[in-house]
Amino acid sequence: MVTAREVLDRAAAELGVEESPAGSNQVKYNTDYYGRAVRGSAYPWCCVFVWWVFHALGADGLVTKTASCTALLNWLKGRGRQVGTGEMASGDLVFYNWSQGPRGSVANHVGIVESVEGRRFTAIEGNTAEGNDGNGGAVMRRTRGTEAVLAVARPDYAAFRERDAAPAAAPQTVAVWAKASWDKAVAQGVLDGSRPTDPASRQELAVVLDRLGLLKGAGEDGA
Fold first, then answer.
1. C-alpha–C-alpha distance, residues 126 and 137, integer Å
2. Is-contact 127 44, C-beta < 8 A?
3. How many CA atoms lie within 13 A of 121 on its CB side?
């Protein structure tokens, strides 16, 4: 079970982390994402930071694994998770486009909304800095207006909680009276040791009879 508050707490715990050396994109979030240390201009990491936060909480299903802000936005849109800018709330993902003209559909940067006050909001963002909004190399809180916001999307926290809250299936156990026979069948490869209380299908019964040598082959005398 993961809540927006837990996501924000995890993101806030990363405040102050910087890539090293500066301008290299070499940072632990990229290392975890790619499975190795990487550096260079091909590895911007604001979206990777968002993935990392959810991944660290075991909530990968709330976002898709991508380093592309546009791909993440489209993934959330495709699941009906976009909300209006005026509906922005804590735990939402906010996508930016820095263009001064028509912004189109390309997202240049992404952050996790921490708080909203009127048309101003604060987000926790990776790979940002004062003076370099979308490639600054640090995890920071940024307070902004909505004028550069391209879109807002809300991970489906409620559905994720319901999924985690669903009771796990009760483990299957072998009855005392059947235990000795069950153990022999498993040891001899007649049964695979799983699903002891599930009903057997006719095809499974055929395999059991065949392994016990009780079935004749085609053309054999069945008398």
1. 7
2. yes
3. 27
Is 138 domain-assigned? yes
Contacts of 97 (CB under 8 A, 6+ apart): 103, 104, 106, 107, 108, 148, 150
The tally of domains found in the chain comes to 2
Peptide bond into 21 cis (omega under 30): yes
- Enclosing H/E stretch for 140: strand 138-145
For residue range 50-105, list pLDDT tens digits in order.
999 999 999 999 999 999 999 999 999 999 999 999 999 999 999 999 886 666 77
Q: pTM for the whole thing? A: 0.72
Domain enclosing residue 119, as ranges: 4-165
| Contact by Cβ (8 Å): 47, 55 | no
Nearest to 76 by CA among 54, 103, 57: 54
Q: What is the DSSP string of 2-62?
A: --HHHHHHHHHTTTT-B-SSTTS---HHHHHHHTS---STT---HHHHHHHHHHHTT-GGG
Q: Domain check: are 132 and 79 in the same one?
A: yes
The span from the CA of 169 to the CA of 202, in Å, is: 25
Tokens read off for 175? 């009855």
Alpha-helical (H) ranges within the chain are 4-12, 28-34, 46-56, 69-78, 157-165, 179-187, 202-211
Q: Are 206 and 215 in contact (CB under 8 A)?
A: yes
